[in-house]
Amino acid sequence: MFIKLLNGIFLLLLVFSVASCAHKASSAFQTGKDQQGQKQYAAAITSYTQAISEQKGKSLVAASYFYRGECYERTGEFAKAYRDFYTATQLSCKIMNTDKASNTNTSALGVLAQSTLCNDYGPQATKRVEPKVPAAQVESIRSEVDTALSAK
After folding, report:
1. Rounded to 5°, angle at Cα 93 from 90 and 96
2. What is the C-alpha separation between 130 and 94, in angstroms, rounded?
3. What is the pTM of this model?
4. Which of 2, 65, 70, 132 is deepest in the core (most CB within 10 A)?
5. What is the tens place of the pLDDT at every residue in 37-84?
6. In what helix (H) or strand (E) does residue 72 lie, and over which residues does it extend?
């Protein structure tokens, strides 16, 4: 029960952080959240993909990857879920480290949400689906994501 409460609090923090960081949360992101809440996972995947492509803020992109990963997990597409959870985790950590290094003035709420995604929820989700993905594919996904993020 307590874990579910913490999960709910985290999700609220993440959504509020995304909204504040992107100034106006992507309508595609919000549509995805609504569709996911109604268990319309295929539609939500499409909406989160659109939110990722809109690039309305790094925090919004990281959150979109995370939530899209949840949808992929629900539909049994574990390799895609793993890729999105791993990407969300690595991107959130990169955002935190970049903000610290550049002394970027971010809100406490945004820092908490990125920290939680980087250190807790992202790694937990990644570990949850990893056993359902072949080891060679896990290594390939990690390498591809790490290479893509280091280029940005």
Report:
1. 150
2. 21
3. 0.81
4. 65
5. 999 999 999 999 999 999 877 889 999 999 999 999 999 999 999 999
6. helix 58-74
